[in-house]
Amino acid sequence: MKVEIISCLRDNYSYLIIDETNNLACVVDPSEARPIIDYLKNKNINLKYILNTHHHFDHVGGNEELKKKYNAIVVGYKHDSERIPEIDILLEDNEIWERDNFVAKIIHVPGHTKGHICFNFYKEKLLFTGDTLFSLGCGKIFEGTYEQMFNSLKKIKALPLDTKIFCGHEYTLNNSKFCIKHDNENLSLQKKIQDIKIKLNDNLPTIPSTLKEEMDCNIFLRAKDVKTFSKLRDLKDNF
Ligand code: ZN
Ligand code: FE
């Protein structure tokens, strides 16, 4: 399996998970159809599945057009069946979703939205976190509670440390400014910030990160309890 990062809209990332043995792909959170179609056409790859982490427009905007063009199957959380356009397969928390050679465990992570899920391709250790966990940040709490978001991040923290983190937006540099402000002695963070700047200077994504890097550097994952976490989330909202 190979993951291709596709830049969409202003700062969104969609991801193609490509099975090179048969040239089939899943797309995670297609913000828009065009950049996905361009890539697939160029490489002669067929899109079979559209995986949505949550219903926000910048994560499902390409569903309809891609489904129509490729006859692809739209996969999302069962309690968001009313909000995810063109949904076909309804997923449950902890379910193992398995089609062709694609195998992912579904992790329900409420907080940003009530129905947010992560796709954990555990065999390859690839985690698609949408707007729940960002590199050096976490999503805004729109629908859930602080406690739900804290517990959702806790579920992610329990995964293997070498899991690669693929999130929904390129927010890393801005997130790093908040982290360093509140955690300025953190040497791993200082080093990560240097790496981020090099990548961005070369016009490269800062994604993927790893869970280990996030545990070491991401202040929201380092928060010990809900109270600390909530305070940080409030500060970040006004940062
Ligand atoms: Zn969102
Ligand atoms: Fe988003």
The dominant shape is: globular
The count of DSSP E runs of length 2 or more, i.e. the number of strands, is 14
Largest sheet: 6 strands, mixed
Number of helical runs? 9
CATH architectural label: 4-Layer Sandwich
| CATH class type | Alpha Beta
CATH topology assignment: Metallo-beta-lactamase, Chain A
Helices and strands, in order, run as EEEHEHHEEEEEEEEHEHHEHHH
Name given to the CATH homologous superfamily: Ribonuclease Z/Hydroxyacylglutathione hydrolase-like
Strand order of the largest sheet: 1-2-3-4-5-6
- Rounded to an integer in angstroms, the radius of gyration calculated over CA atoms is 17 Å
Helix content: 25-40%
The number of distinct structural domains comes to 1
Distance N terminus to C terminus? 38 Å
